[in-house]
Amino acid sequence: MASDSDIHLYTAQTPNGIKISILLEELGLPYQTTKLEFSKSTQKEPWFLEINPNGRIPAITDKFTDGKPIRLFESGSIMQYLVARYDKDHKFSFPPGSREFLEMNNWLFFMNAGVGPMQGQANHFTRYAPEHIEYGVNRYQNETRRLYGVLDKHLADTKAEYLVGNKCTIADISHWGWVSAAGWAGVNLDDFPHLKKWEERMWARPALKKGANVPDPYKLKELLQDKEKMDRHAAEARNWVQQGMKEDAEKNAARSK
Amino acid sequence: MANLLQKITGGLKAEKPIKLYGHGGGPNPWKVEVILRELGLPFDRQIMDFADLKKEPFESINPNGRVPAIEDPNTGMKLWESGAIIEYLLETYDSSNSLSYTSGAEKWEQKCWLHFQMSGQGPYFGQRAWFTLYHSEKNLTSCLDRYGNEIRRVISVIDAHLKSTGREYLVGDKCTYADLSFATWHWLLTSPPNIMGEGFAKEWEENYPLAWKWNERMQARAAVKEARDERTKVISGK
Ligand SMILES: N[C@@H](CCC(=O)N[C@@H](CS)C(=O)NCC(=O)O)C(=O)O
Ligand SMILES: N[C@@H](CCC(=O)N[C@@H](CS)C(=O)NCC(=O)O)C(=O)O
Fold first, then answer.
1. Start and end of every GST N-terminal domain (chain A) (predicted)?
2. pLDDT digits over A84-128, tens only?
3. Which fold would CATH assign to domain A2-86?
């Protein structure tokens, strides 16, 4: 029951962040949003570490069924929580224990342990790394392509519109932000025709569009058309990414003294 | 339908052995074996050649061509991705909730940590292993440092969490599957191939003492020890 909930989303305009706002929009749930400023390292401030000890977005807080506050971090568990609690009609999920439920979970973990981290590394070596390391660029772009190949083949083999059970579930929603950002990682979606059609199908969903525009307007599709803008955007991100790397390295070194 | 309901309440009995597809070196299949042993479930381990993973018949079990994967003759289910397998095993067979909380906020807190392990520990420890074991000749120092720092960061997140809660385990006051999911990757840090170098155990113990003790507690469990011994046997070909 939505009235007994009090969902607060901590997020930023990134592939992992928009997973959650998209799901919330698809479920039609009310929520408040706080945007975290990576350029100011807000995600590492103590108040936020109480919500996510890992210092990353997305995270949510909610009023739990016992009336007390609950915090959740990691996009995967947040999505599992939201459908378990609020998707009683199984519009974006399946009944727990059913074959489709388990299959959906396979793909959710495939995203969070495979596509996300590997495409994230491809982004790093392609866009943010302090020095150009050809080996790193190739390794992670190739792995991202391999993973896209698995998705593409699965969609082709099952002739289905979505990953599991022919409806849009959290397995699909979790993938969309990453797949739609393929170009940013240097991967061409045209090489994966079934996945590309799936991406277009997802993008045509009004709630997905709405959720993708949280907390800032979703501009990636335009950005990917404009090389100059892409470079400028990468340069801005490079600053905080490298700053974060430096701070982590210094923290480790300080402990070892 | 009866089957389904039993599964939801975790009351199913595994009459027939669960087939676990694994590999000697990689820690992910052993993570599942630890849980199977903890729950006392019958299983058959099949060690796979990496060369056989990315083709049929294995691709019909795991389209991603990786281990672990399981086939459970008791339910007719095939699953892949260690995190999804672990959730399935717990939800299907942990009738006494020995390794999990099944309600309350703890139920969800567990899942947060499992997902952190799956997306935050496994992939990054794996990258460090790759650059250490297969690409040391290329001397890709900045890659080694990148993933080495991430390993330290992951351990420091756990250390800080244990410090702030004052508890011995990640969730509540017992060892759950969330803790155990981290255990097998730690083998690569504290014994050969020592992907962080031989001095790292000492650095870990000194710099992240609560996370160190937490790991020691897990490694002392019979199921973790047995799985580790089995792995040593598989690797040495005995
Ligand atoms: N496995 C996590 C990954 C979260 C993650 O990496 N978030 C990024 C943005 S997409 C972040 O917060 N980065 C900030 C930082 O690294 O300091 C999840 O799925 O929630
Ligand atoms: N996210 C997956 C990762 C599985 C994985 O990477 N397994 C490795 C062994 S630890 C593998 O099968 N490698 C074979 C290959 O890359 O071809 C999981 O946790 O199950």
1. 4-90
2. 999 999 999 999 999 999 999 999 999 999 999 999 999 999 999
3. Glutaredoxin (3.40.30)
